[in-house]
Amino acid sequence: MSSKIWLVLVVGLVAPSCGDQGPELPEAPATRAECIQRAVFPEPTSSPYCLPFAEGSAYALTQSYCSAPGRSHMNRFAWDFAGPMGTEIIAVRGGVVVELREHWPDTDTQGGHENMVAVQHDDESLSIYIHMMKDGVLVELGDTVPRGGLIGWMGSSGTGFSHLHFMICLRAGLCSSPTEITLPVSYRNAIGPLDSIGGLAEGEEYLAGACN
Ligand SMILES: [Zn+2]
């Protein structure tokens, strides 16, 4: 079931719109500089997003948004939080589970072999949680999850170490390279230092305050 849903997203990617009448697709930033141009972070207290882990816990941000050239977040708004295998992953915003995979072993480091969850919000954007633990997705397709709800456990599928790769995609079909469109995110309950433009800073640790 989950692989069928994934196929739908991929098909949406390669056949994006209906000729002249469809809305023009935005383009992914090609460079770090273009990524940084789009980096406008709302005031955290007005943000709909919490950190993706439980209140009172803290995790290091091992890679932040628009990272150095050659790194995987060079042209995207994505955040890597490192933690132990089995760390609880929390819904950053409420929505409906529209895609999930959890069959890949955590020992499988091949790119493309990531367990994941996608939750669609009421504005059609999606929160994407990647590298989940094998059989560590605790929600089902079609479930409605509240902000702050437990969705699964951190793993290392499709990568070399246990961490969560998290991002918000503009809408379904725009969550995969090279047309992936990701959005800058402020976290309303993040306790820790922000960078000069209000984003989370790579190498820092963030404590999750109350998610309300
Ligand atoms: Zn990442």
Rounded average pLDDT? 90
Low-confidence segments: 1-21
Specify the structural class: mainly beta
Quick one: biggest sheet? 9 strands, antiparallel
The strands making up the biggest β-sheet line up spatially as 8-4-5-6-10-2-1-12-11
Strand content: 25-35%
Summarize the helix and strand pattern as letters. HHEEEEEEEEEEEE
Provide a count of the helices: 2
What would you give as the CATH superfamily?
Answer: Glucose Permease (Domain IIA)
Taking Cα atoms only, what radius of gyration do you get, to the nearest Å?
16 Å
Helix content: under 10%
What shape does the CA trace take? globular
What is the domain total for the residues?
Answer: 1
Number of strands: 12
| Bound ligand species | zinc ion
Report, as a whole number of angstroms, the end-to-end distance: 33 Å
Care to give the gist of this entry?
The chain has helices at 2-14, 32-37; strands spanning 58-63, 78-82, 88-90, 95-101, 116-120, 126-130, 132-137, 144-145, 150-154, 163-169, 190-191, 205-208. The chain is mainly β and 212 residues long.
Your description of this structure?
The protein is mostly beta strands and 212 residues long. The protein has a single domain, classed as Glucose Permease (Domain IIA), CATH 2.70.70.10. It contains 2 helices and 12 strands; from the N terminus they run ααββββββββββββ. The chain has helices at residues 2-14, 32-37; strands at residues 58-63, 78-82, 88-90, 95-101, 116-120, 126-130, 132-137, 144-145, 150-154, 163-169, 190-191, 205-208. A hairpin with a 5-residue loop joins strand 5 and strand 6 (126-130). It is globular, with a radius of gyration of 16 Å. Residues 1-21 have low confidence and may be disordered. The protein binds zinc ion (ZN).
